[in-house]
Amino acid sequence: MVRFPVVLFDLDGTVVDSAAIILASMRHATREVLGREYSDDELMRTVGGPGLDAQMAALAPDRVDELVQVYRAHNEPLHDELEACPGMGDVLVRLAAEGRRLGIVTAKRRSTAELAFERVPLGHLFETIVGGDDTERHKPDPEPLLLAAERMGVDPAAAAYVGDSPFDIRAAKAAGMYAIGVTWGRIHGRALLEAEEPDALVSLPEELLERL
User: Fold this and answer.
1) Which tens digit of pLDDT belongs to each residue from 120-156?
2) What is the pTM of this model?
3) Cα–Cα dist 49/193, whole Å
4) What is the DSSP string of 69-95?
5) Nearest-CA neighbor of 23 among 10, 9, 42?
6) Tens digits of residue pLDDT in 94-104
C-alpha cells in the first residue's frame, strides 16, 4: 500500500531544470524594456508564484505587458535546451510503475508546459496538467492544486504536492495536501523553503521515493 496514491508536481525547478533559461529571459526582458540591471535574487524572487504577469508587476507594474512579451519571445526558443532535473526522469518512471497517479500544477501557461514536454519526454507520465491559464487564482492560493485533484477525482488529502518554491509549499498546505519541498531547483534557497515548514524537504529526487 503506497502512502500517497496521487502525487502532483510543480514543473519549473522541480521536474525540468529551467532556472538558467528563466533567469536569462528575465535579465533580457528587464534590460530591453527597463534598461537596468537587477540582481539574480531580485529577478527570481517571485518565480513559481502567481505567474509571469505577477513576476513582472513586482519589477515594473506599469510595463507588465511589454516585459511579458519580450520575455516570452526570448524564452520559448530556449526550451530547445531544456532538460529534466537530474534523476527526476527515473523517479517519475518508478512512481508510475508503482501505480501512482501523477499530475503537473504549474504557473506556466498550458502551451508553454506542453512545449517543455516536447523537449523533455516525460509528459506521458502525467494524467493531468493544470497551467496558469486554467484558474482564476494562482499559487500560493490552493485553487490550481484543488482543480488537479478534482480532475483526477481524488480527495486532496490523498495527494502530495512536490515543488521547489515557498509558493508551492503554501499552496499544498492550503489545499490540505502533503507538502514536499525540493532543493535542487536553483531558483529559491533552502532557507526560504525551510521557513515554510514543509512536511518534508528533500535534496535528491531519489529521496522522494522514501517520502511518498
Assistant:
1) 999 999 999 999 999 999 999 999 999 999 999 999 9
2) 0.96
3) 13
4) HHHHHHHHHHGGG--BPTTHHHHHHHH
5) 42
6) 999 999 999 99
Sign (positive or negative) of CA dihedral 191, 187, 83, 91:
positive
Which member of 10, 17, 141, 168 is catalytic?
A: 10
Q: Are 11 and 114 in contact (CB under 8 A)?
A: no
Backbone angles phi, psi at 93, to 5 degrees: -60, -40
Residue 105, classed as helix, strand or coil, is strand
Give exposure, 133-169, as e/b (b: 16+ Cβ within 10 Å): ebbeebbbbbbbbbbbbeebebebebbbbbbbbbbbb
CB count, 10 Å around CB of 14? 27
> Which residue type sits at 34?
L
Q: Name 97's Cβ contacts closer than 8 Å, sequence gap at least 6.
A: none
Between the CA atoms of 161, 40, 113 and 184, what dihedral angle is there, to the nearest 10 degrees? -40
CA atoms of 36 and 23, how far apart (whole Å): 15
Count the neighbouring beta carbons within 10 Å of the beta carbon of residue 120: 20
* Grid cell listed for 112: 508553454
Verify whether residue 164 is a known catalytic residue.
no
Residue 77 CB coordination number (10 Å)? 10
> How are strands ordered across the β-sheet holding 126-130?
126-130, 101-105, 6-9, 159-163, 178-182, 200-202
Closest CA to 79 of 104, 114, 110, 50: 114
